[in-house]
Amino acid sequence: MTELENTNAYVIENIEPVSLKVSFSDIISSKEAPYLLVVKSASSECIRLTIYPIKKKRIIKIKLSGAETIENFLEHFSKIIKDFEVLHTSGLMKKGEHLYYEFYLNVNKSDDKYKDLIASIDTIRYIFKEIKIEEIGLKKAQRR
Q: Which CATH number goes with the domain that contains 114?
């Protein structure tokens, strides 16, 4: 892609299973980032894959739900992430009266910073109806 291009597109046949070939060698070597975080977002109209080269085999996904105002949400959410590298966010969604948000952090349960993350979350737990913390690990490649 050139400096003026934001995206790259091509058309392929829809034959199950769809195989995509993606190379990251133009942005980072596999030695520098030996893993890929693949985030799949699906709707009735499309599937979007966002792929990040990463160094860790495991990362943390956090789901927040139930905050009632955007101001309240943003103020307290920023307290959680200020000391962590955010890899991906879902964007803020509103369903009914409640807000929902997912984000992925470049930290895992064995990192020293994980305790700091839990402490940060504990200080704002009362704002949200639900907070889920999940460690996302290496998925075994499926061989054909």
A: 3.30.70.260
